[in-house]
Design brief:
Chains A, B: InterPro entries: Homeodomain-like_sf (IPR009057), HTH-type_TetR-like_transc_reg (IPR050109), HTH_TetR (IPR001647), Repressor_TetR_C (IPR004111), Tet_transcr_reg_TetR (IPR003012), Tet_transcr_reg_TetR-rel_C_sf (IPR036271). Two copies of one chain form a homodimer. With about 180 residues, chain A is mostly helical. Chain A has nine helices and no strands. Chain A has a single domain, classed as Orthogonal Bundle (Tetracycline Repressor, domain 2), CATH 1.10.357. Chains A and B meet through helix 6, helix 8 and helix 9 of A and helix 6, helix 8 and helix 9 of B. Chain A binds a DNA duplex (19 and 19 nucleotides) through helix 3.
DNA sequence: ACCTGAACACCGTTCAAGT
DNA sequence: ACCTGAACACCGTTCAAGT
């Protein structure tokens, strides 16, 4: 499991194969199938580790501040592991992995049905955003995108804050 | 190219291999590399076809109505091809494929810098949303998610409208 | 200009058999 | 309970050679 995260960091998701992981552990590929039903459930475990790093923020009572902190925490967690957003997005989409992330956002949003629905919107924006940023960083890294990594992060941070602010403002108007 | 779309429809993205596509055309796999540099650029061409199906909506002058129509048109285009959202998301992220989609959204939003930035947010939400919905539909199709396809679409349509409304409302407050 | 044939270096998953 | 060994049915990409 720690080896899986390390391998993700070193080689990226496309190269995180069952064979390679087995090799890094020093075991036969087939041995992994004793511990995980298939590759997908192994990745779900990896996804839980990644979002687990987003600490539960101390609630300040200021809703906008709490939501913004939670959103930034999640974005940072996703971006701090290579291909983290993609791993979490596909896990989330398949209904695998824990629901702690959605719960945390819904709570910061104040709880209740409207908050749960807003949390879904926010989560989808964050995952879509982070996936795009991350693949773009990857492309930049081997020269396939005409910006360096720092520029990509700088440019997109503004987009991210704008997105979070819009969703919060919209919640007040429509909710 | 049409064969690639047909294959995507029939077998899905994971099974859309260069070998399988070549077989369906009746040609050797290596022949494809005369027409496309690699699999990624082939997929970029597929992505352009998918979003190309989202017709330019007739501008009514009502900004919210135009944006909503454009957003729904894009969502429908993504969802109407199997794995369409994933194909377009990764193409977009790599800076491959055309920028017509972003342009269309920015225009519906009124043009200018603020509109371009809002279009980015909206596009990321739509792609994140559609990816999630689509993978969930796929999961439902082979019983790995406890809802049927119709329920998934119904449930998430409400989330989608809510997201678009929030972003529009937010734009008025922050822009 | 466009395609074949053959090769290179890989995949995920299954399953009998071993300890 | 946990792992090996061997197999099955695949991948993307390259490149000399053919027409």
């Amino acid at each position: 499991m720690d080896t899986a995260i390390r391998l993700l960091e070193e080689t990226g998701l496309p190269d995180l194969s069952m064979r390679r992981l087995a090799g890094a552990i020093g075991v036969q590929p087939s041995a992994l199938y004793w511990h995980f039903e298939n590759k997908q459930s192994l990745l779900a475990a990896v996804a839980d580790r990644i979002v687990g790093a987003a600490e539960a923020a101390p609630a300040t009572g200021d809703r906008d501040a709490d939501v913004t902190a939670a959103a930034i925490g999640l974005r940072d967690a996703l971006l701090s592991h290579r291909d983290g957003a993609e791993v979490v997005l596909s896990t989330q989409a398949l209904g695998l992995g824990s629901e702690a992330t959605h719960r945390r956002l819904a709570q910061a949003l104040g709880g209740g049905d409207a908050a749960a629905s807003a949390a879904t919107v926010l989560l989808q924006f964050i995952l879509g955003h982070a996936s795009l940023v991350q693949q773009r960083i990857q492309a930049a890294r081997f020269g396939a995108y005409p910006q360096d990594e720092a520029d990509v992060v700088a440019t997109t941070s503004a987009d991210f804050s704008a997105g979070v602010r819009m969703i919060l403002a919209g919640l007040d108007v429509t909710g």
